[in-house]
Write a structure and sequence with these properties.
CATH topology of the largest domain: Rieske Iron-sulfur Protein
Strand order of the largest sheet: 1-2-3-4
Number of strands: 10
Distance between the termini: 99 Å
Strand content: 15-25%
Radius of gyration: 33 Å
Largest sheet: 4 strands, antiparallel
CATH superfamily of the largest domain: Rieske [2Fe-2S] iron-sulphur domain
Helix content: 10-25%
Bound molecules: FE2/S2 (inorganic) cluster
């Protein structure tokens, strides 16, 4: 005599439902694995493109034809980004400027100085504002007749950017400029030497 539990047979409908659920589970798992693999592969394409784009933005250098704009609130209360006019920069004054649209690159910062009376291009000179010693921003002190770096006390001549004293190993690179009929200032070439620390 056989004793024990009596097993109730699974109805066909329940078996079909269980089979369907199992197939759905396998499909879901395969789909998930496929999506994960796709996302992993895509990351190798999208991330380098993103990094390349960021680097492109970061290295925008000054180029001929770039208009010079105030880097911060400028003379006569001009807002940052406003074009600098040659007549704004009177003898003994200075302005820090960027090439328009390229302020993201600090290496583009320019020190405009006027060393002789006038309102046009004569006596108006442009230099890199980045010290050639360790890269601090140089300040114009034209009353004292100098461009000075506050970090380690390098001094440069406003007439030609040459090192007058201090640890800076090279002159400040100069930038060729032109003054347009409307008085705005544009670069006519790149800096004449590498900017900052080399
Ligand atoms: S960074 Fe200008 S003197 Fe050192």
């Amino acid at each position: 005599m056989v004793t024990g539990q009596v097993r109730t047979p699974t109805p066909p409908t329940a078996r079909r439902q269980a089979a369907n659920e199992s197939r759905f589970g396998r499909r879901f798992l395969l789909g998930f694995m496929g999506a994960s693999a796709g996302a992993f592969a895509l990351s190798f394409t999208v991330v380098p493109l993103f990094v390349t784009k960021v680097l492109e933005i970061a290295v925008q250098e000054i180029a001929p034809g770039d208009q010079l704009v105030y880097s911060a609130i400028g003379l006569n209360g001009a807002a940052a980004g406003t074009p600098v006019k040659a007549s704004d920069v009177q003898q003994g004054l200075s302005v820090q400027a960027f090439p328009k649209g390229k302020a993201d690159n600090q290496q583009n910062l320019i020190e405009l100085v006027r060393i002789a009376a006038g309102e046009g291009p004569d006596g108006l000179l442009a230099y890199s504002a980045i010290c050639t010693h360790l890269g601090c921003v140089v300040m114009a002190k034209l009353v004292q007749g100098e461009l000075a770096c506050p970090c380690h006390n390098s001094h440069f001549a406003p007439e030609n950017g040459a090192v007058a004293s201090g640890p800076a190993p090279r002159p400040l690179p100069s930038l060729p400029i032109a003054v347009g009929a409307d008085g705005t200032i544009t670069a006519t070439g790149p800096f004449n030497a590498p900017v900052g620390v080399i």
